Amino acid sequence: EIHIKEPIEKEVNPHLLPGELLLCEASTVYKYIQEDGSNRGTYGKLVCTNFKIAFLDDDSASDDNEPQFKNKIVGENDITLQCVDQIYGVYDEKKKLLTGQLRKYPEKLIIYCKDLRVFHFCLRYTKEEEVKRIVSGIVHHSQTPKLLKRLFLFSYASAAPNNTDGRNQTVMFDTLEDWRDELERTKGNVKYKAVTTNEGYRVSEKLPLYFVVPICVSEESILKYEGRGIPIWCWSCHNGAALLKMSAFPKEQDDITSQTQKAFLDGIYKTISKPPYELLKMDDLSSSLPSLQDIQVAYTRFKQLFLIDNSTDFWATDVKWFSLLESTNWLEIVRRVLKKAIEVAECLERQHTNVLLIEESATDLCCVISSLVQVMMDSYSRTKSGFQSLIQKEWVIGGHGFLDRCNHLHKSDKEEAPVFLLLLNCVWQLVQQYPPAFEFTETYLTVLSDSLYVPIFSTFFFNSQHQKDTNTSGESLKTQSAPFRFLTVWDWSVQFDPKAQAFLNNPLYAEKPKLDKSQRKTARFKHQRQLSLPLTQTKSSTKRGFFREETDHLIKNILGKRIGKFINSSDEPPNSFREFYDSWHSKPVDYHGLLLPRIDGPEIKVWAQRYLRWIPEAQLHGGGTIATAAKILDLMEEVQSLQVKMDEEHSQAVSGDVHSVPMLRNSARLSSLFPFALLQRQSIKPALPTSTWKDLEDEDDLVKRDDEFVDLSGDM
After folding, report:
1. What would the mean pLDDT of 182-194 be, rounded to a whole number?
2. Is residue 34 scored above 90 in pLDDT?
3. CA 174, CA 389: separation in Å to the nearest integer?
4. CA count, 13 A, side-chain hemisphere, 211
């Protein structure tokens, strides 16, 4: 059966943003709704602009079928040029990767996106000239190297009226005052100072204008090696211990240079190891964590599991799911990173030791570990504004090379690595393990990961503060020397209306109670007592929460060996770590105190909302956490309306805006991957492949046989 919407008769024009230009288009393009062999789809127009690739059908013109969670910048059928991962052409049923100049044009186009969407376009009914223009246009604008100033970011900034106040209580850390306030907030101002040594970038272009160092470190020391070998402050714990980071010296140097640098480092270490400073523990992350190349290889394999072409592929890989997942090594990397963050937290919290994270540039894994430690130890970082301020401090101002690591300019694949995505994956583990501790939801994290590829915000499109500053004061299109006014991603009103923004806020967040002055003294004493952990070891089950009593015996047999490999990892934590970890997990959770993630075996999970949201077969209709959230939001709406009535009765004006709560009636109609999987998307589960039925019929053979191992690395 073939389901086809007839070609549209009325003209549908793309919605263009300020500074957006239409570059090429093709009519009578057929988009498959679901590539499952049924050929269901719709005709429309495929366009390419300097911002996005968009498919326009007759639904694009109507507002009747508006989703509840709509992005105002990027529509359901829009792909920003930076979000395109790979493009394949289909020639005589064979897929071929499209790059550079094309000699022959395909009959079908498959676009794989970095947010894991997959688009299938049939060009068989399109005019030949239009096919040439649209295919070469899409490949050229999304896959070839480009100059920084050619990013849509600059076109938009010079054409768009910037009336929004993007701060939204987020501390940007671009002023000296911001750093001093942070020092005061964490009580670090006794031993550490904010410095202006790098004003005008006279120390280094890689360092921010302002940063914090120990009081005893001189300006001369900072200038000596362009900031290398200098401990830079990240955060101070309630007990005075601090988290520091340092950019290491290059390893390949001649003997005289190495000796001079070693003497310099020894002098620095001695200075910051004396009182009033705590003992110092150094941790070279390049030797204790996977390399950026390992992280990139693992993620490349991992994402292939979710870039599904059709239903047949999904069900074929479903049987081998555990072996495929394990062979990517991605979850193991997430586990190792979380374990490292717990080790650092133990040094700060229990041993009262300063921790110095060392990395070649101190802008990659240092950012991941320092951010994770703060999320685990500082409840302020678990609020929305606190988390955003943390990303600004450690990543944006801290100098993480977003431009290179996300490969936005397609300059070098060697520099690409999903370091920021790794952090979001680790934070998601904490969010799903301790939901009441976070003011934001997993939807917030998913949307934040999508925003990496939306080039109207400057937040994720520069390598350093210096690069942004030097490119901000440029000639715009209209005036000779007006500086560009870039938007920040933290102004969520640019992408979402208030109704949609409600999905970013956690209705079950356990807000910290505000104490009056008479209670504060006792509360401080109580806080210290809660955080000092006893040394008694308690035995915890590594499989807790995974195999439930009602689990089928057959499934236990099938998965037992596979899960065992995760649990009995060769990288077993040492005794003091295990003691700290088990002791903390044996107590009730204080949602405003220290949070330690559960990292044993199957506790590390796949971030389902981000990775499975476009696969209809993976959705639970009327189930999942959204069914619970729908009921809670309905209840909140009712409470708010009663509150308004009470206020009206007492004739008291409500101060501030009442949070808009979306209407989520009929939660049975929602899918578990809502709000991304829309209500109208239905999936018909095909019959299982014949080979699978044979396997299931012979239960004994299935139990005895090991899960088939498939190497995703190809010829590597």
Report:
1. 96
2. no
3. 11
4. 32
